[in-house]
Design a protein that fits this description.
Strand content: 15-25%
Number of domains: 2
Low-confidence stretches: none
Number of strands: 20
Structural class: alpha/beta
Largest sheet: 9 strands, mixed
CATH superfamily of the largest domain: Glycogen Phosphorylase B
Mean pLDDT: 95
CATH topology of the largest domain: Rossmann fold
Shape: globular
CATH architecture of the largest domain: 3-Layer(aba) Sandwich
Amino acid sequence: MRVLFVSAELAPFAKVGGLGDVAAALPRALAALGVDVAVATPKYRSVTGALTPVTEFPVPVGGQDRTCVVFRGALPESEVPVYFLGHDPYFDRPGIYGEGTQEYPDSLARFTFLSRAALALGPAVNWIPDVIHANDWHTALVPVYLRSGTVALPAQSVLTVHNLAYQGWFPASQAGVAGLNEAGRHLVALGDQMNLLQGGILAADRITTVSPSYAQEILDRGEGLEEHLRARRDDLVGILNGVDCSVWDPARDPHLWAAYSAKDLSGKAENKRRLQAELGLADDGSPLVGMVSRLADQKGFDLVVEAFDRMLALGIQLVVLGTGEPRYESFLRQAQERHPMRVRALVEFSERWAHRIEAGSDIFLMPSRFEPCGLNQLYSLRYGTVPAVRATGGLKDTIHEHVDTGNGFTFSEYTAEAMLAALGRAVRVWRHDPVAWQRLMRRGMREDHSWGRSAREYVAVYAQVPAARRRSPR
């Protein structure tokens, strides 16, 4: 089986969020199962290294042909080919989606180019995929082009929705940019707008999302697309994301100050000590709570702001890494100024600090309003950092609170009080029952959240695509 995986992000070449991690790890896991898989992604300015020019071909965007220059590379630590689709006027820019808080105004043209270039890639390199696996709204036009007959290719499609909140809205008057025929325009039409993710949901042969609970939640709370999702429920499946164990492994993580494992946790204490020293936090025996996240309402930062003083009253230290809404960036910077020995805000994106915070923290806080899957709670488990999370989406599927069998602390109601109660329970166990805490740590570290299991579920989805095509709406 040949599978072309198409993504707007691909770690380590171009990453904004979890999509980049998934696009790097899942194809490697599929290849390990014998799938003939390749990845297609834009050749952004950030893509460097030894690349081989392969071919070039025209890609129609807005009624004009744009030249796609194809370069071939490989996923790190694998032989999985990556085809970087280059068109400098679209992708030779400082950002992936935009700069600062502003998206690039020609996003529709950029991702139309990506989708159409991905569909033209197979014939150009003499490798015709059986399944094209699109991801999120940026490549949702792939199944639309196939379903509407805009592009003639004997391939079937799978669309993974990583976050339904981002749907690719554009004025219907811009349909000509995407080059959609009448059938394609019908698929993406929503009022006087185009919704690219809606088009992908209606057009794909199978639809996946990134956790079983999220797959159920979006049937009722689907960001306006509930009706379409319910119509496709027989073709919708939730598959948990996994952890790339070649990248996230405390026993051999090059970003850490000291290696450690479930058998020998001594290195974790050293990572906490060094993290506190590097960030100027007091080494005063307090539990260290970490957050690595976009600073946004979705991630629960409205609860953090509301409960902030009460959180510190629990006797914790807090370190937050991330960028996002200016009001939250400002709040965290001010909090750091008010509490220089107890709060540190790293308002930036840093892979190195993300790993160090995972290793050096005692508790990892994820109070998300909604969370399709979440990866940091899985990284936390692997690094012996006990998660405290809201039970929603993938967090609900992976973190369980139980005195004997649990791996973290959870709360259900989206309130500051519920979050504080869960965090308070975690702090009390950390302070007063170190034996139980070490059991929690080791239990999480021994869980298997590798990509192998998830990849097998994707292979099953690919195998079911022909039956799905017979019953999906046209």
